[in-house]
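Support request, priority: normal
Reporter: lab tech (M.K.)
Component: structure prediction queue

Hi team, I submitted a job for SESD1 protein from Agelaius phoeniceus yesterday, and the status page still shows it as pending. I've pasted the exact input below so you can check whether something in the sequence is tripping the parser. The sequence length should be 685 residues. Please let me know if I need to resubmit or if it's stuck on your end.
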Amino acid sequence: LLFLSETGGKDRRSGLILTIPLCLEQTSMDELSVTLDYLLSIPSEKCKARGFTVIVDGRKSQWNVVKTVVLMLQNVVPAEVSLVCVVKPDEFWDKKVTHFCFWKEKDRLGFEVILVSANKLTRYIEPCQLTEDFGGTLTYDHMDWLNKRLVFEKFTKESTSLLDELALINNGSDKGNQQERERSIDLNFLPSVDPETVLQTGHELLSELQQRRFNGSDGGVSWSPMDDELLAQPQVMKLLDSLREQYTRYQEVCRQRSKRTQLEEIQQKVMQVVNWLEGPGSEQLRTQWGIGDSIRASQALQQKHEEIESQHSEWFAVYVELNQQIAALLNAGDEEDLVELKALQQQLSDVCYRQASQLEFRQNLLQAALEFHSVAQDLSQQLDGLLGMLCVDVAPADGASIQQTLKLLEEKLKSVDLGLQGLREKGQSLLDQISNQASWAYGKDVTIENKENVDHIQGVMEDMQLRKQRCEDMVDVRRLKMLQMVQLFKCEEDAAQAVEWLSELLDALLKTHIRLGDDAQETKVLLEKHRKFVDVAQSTYDYGRQLLQATVVLCQSLRCTSRSSGDTLPRLNRVWKQFTVTSEERVHRLETAVAFHSTAEKILQECPDQPEAFNEMDQFDEIEAVGKSLLDRLTVPVVYPDGSEQYFGSPSDMASAAEHIREKMKLVSLKKQQLRQPEATTPES
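Reply from support: The job had stalled in the queue. We restarted it manually and it finished. Here are the results:
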């Protein structure tokens, strides 16, 4: 039944065509009757007078259903129906079923009924007036038509109701009695629907109808005269005109009413704002004078003040709104209200600005107090940290760690000094603000409250100054102690370095001081260099001893035991004894080498014919003994006091030195033989 509709097509008598599509499902005759009544109520009386042609599409239904529908038309619309075309299926109903002849019942039915196939329906109706379902060319969208119809009916219902409401409101405003007029307006001031929305809906509907009428040539949905009759375009236009007229009057009524009541509302609201700000609002500020004695206390006061500000903000928002309303009324130029409005505006502004200034002053004071307590807390924590650092015994690992600790100590002390300076600045700024607090005290004596705040601020600053002074004194003592510890570590490190240097000198003596010289002169030079080398070692040893003595003195001053001097002194003495033994051995070898080279050179330089040569044969025995002693000494290691042994140089170095001595001993032995030959020949001669 949803698709039962008037398609807009017309029969050859210019009557409307009504299509009733039937389906296999059970068809409710009651619903069909209601739908027919609705569709027949749409066309105008003029259109109804031309009659209807009803197409009953029975191609998907049964004969008994079709028969029932046709008979129902007799009861529903007998006068309007002129022709009923029953579209039969391709396979015709059984003749036994269709023995009922509609044409014989024309007089009783009141209209003609014919059975026709869909392809032969054009014999009775022009193809251009039939939809595609029946082989025609008429364009018809049932859902589109249904949606438009629903919009139209909704608009008609809403606009009619709205017109009645607006007329009641407008007529009430025209009454002579002021009290009666206001009562009428109060009861019906707001319509049940929004006039703007209804007007917009009507304009959109009218625009759609007008567009459908003139877009047929542009390839859109074609228009037929039925569109105006079914969708009632003139009725929409008439309703829109009436709505615009009544809505214009309604707007004027609203404007007048708003103008009459706005001034009264402004006066009432202004007095509400002024009374609250000068009453409860001012009383709230009178009770808030403290600044707190800690961050938490200041934050609690700030939170309380924010609550007060929140309450004031609501009234300040009302003030802004009222000020805008008054400005709008002043711009309107109603002279009779100008003086009163300006007085209200001035009174409201004075009270609000004074109260806002007091709130801002209080907020700034609490913020300054919070900053002061925050700096004081940070400074207190810094002093606690510095004091904790000073109370811990210094036990660094080396001088570098002491320097780092000392640097950290100085940085903390500098940070404390800066913190105290910042605290003084914050405190002085807060004291200056407190001194100005009495300027808005509303006559109340705030000397007691201010004195408590001032005493608290000054007490905090004095306490921090005393704590800083105590820490500075402790830092001076700790600094001296740490500098002594740095010196102690330096002495210990230098003493250890002296031991290393002496060990390196000993190592150099054993590995590089191995030559004995090729002659007496070179050997004497080596001996002189060795003595200077020993002097350097002696200075290194003395330097180490002095450092260790200074370490002992510093340990006694610091009342602590040195961690390394107890080990360094034995090492220094042990290395020095080894060096002394090695040096003495080196000196002995060089002195022996000098004696050997001097005697050998003297013998080798004497002429054989000298008579005194024959008296010095015992020198040859002496030099041989010295040479053998020197060769033996080269093969003997240096024996230290602890029993350890060490050789000079490598075996090849010693072999080279021994070879040179042996060669010179051979020359001396040859010289001795030369001297003996003349002695042997003299007696024979």
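The chain has a mean pLDDT of 78. The chain has 17 helices and seven strands. Let us know if anything else looks off. Ticket resolved.
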